[in-house]
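Researcher: We plan to redesign the surface later, but first we want a full-length starting point. Tokens attached.
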């Protein structure tokens, strides 16, 4: 009997599907009718707050420098040119002087290396000899060395009979001489040489008191 009651009013399959799908339709309607979340309103470009004065200057919106007229620009260019020309002239003079000093120093060192030869030839000429050929050969050698020194701008420092000059002479002896004046050089032991303002070797002398 129970089985017969269950089969008396069977539910059609279409109605079963509709009843099964009904909850899903209600959930979709609820999603569609839901209100979207509230969003913050973005101010328009015209309503945006102005940047501080310091930031305006950083972005190039600060006060502009006044434009210089053509005359002022030409004056500044002329001043820069004159300064540059003066600096170049000073550089040229300084380098020329340094070059000249380097050349003089090189000559002085070279000549100083040959001075012992000059001293030996000078001693040889003071020696008495009967060999005229030997004497003539020494004289010619000495003359050639002196000409070479002159061509290099090297000169002998005047000493005998001159007033003693501590910047050129080296006094190794003093004597009392009534005939010679005070501070007068009466004897030269070793000849001195000079090249321009550069003293290569001081003259070794005897000075009268």
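Model: Full-length starting sequence:
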């Amino acid at each position: 009997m129970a089985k017969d009651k269950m089969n008396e009013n069977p539910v059609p399959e279409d109605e079963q599907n509709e009843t099964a799908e009904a909850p899903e339709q209600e959930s979709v309607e609820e999603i569609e009718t839901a209100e979207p979340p509230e969003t913050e309103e973005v101010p328009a470009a015209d309503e945006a707050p102005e940047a501080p004065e310091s930031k305006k200057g950083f972005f190039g919106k600060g006060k502009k420098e006044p434009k210089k007229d053509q005359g002022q620009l030409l004056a500044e260019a002329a001043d820069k040119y004159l300064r540059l020309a003066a600096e170049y002239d000073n550089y040229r003079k300084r380098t020329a002087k340094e070059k000249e000093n380097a050349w003089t120093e090189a000559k002085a060192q070279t000549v100083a290396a040959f001075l012992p030869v000059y001293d030996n030839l000078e001693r040889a000429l003071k020696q008495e000899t009967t060999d005229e050929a030997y004497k003539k050969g020494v004289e010619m050698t000495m003359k050639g060395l002196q000409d070479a020194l002159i061509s290099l701008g090297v000169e002998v420092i005047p000493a005998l009979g001159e007033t003693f000059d501590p910047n050129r002479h080296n006094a190794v002896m003093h004597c009392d001489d009534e005939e010679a004046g005070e501070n007068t050089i009466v004897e030269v032991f070793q000849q001195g040489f000079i090249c321009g303002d550069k003293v290569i070797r001081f003259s070794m002398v005897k000075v009268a008191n």
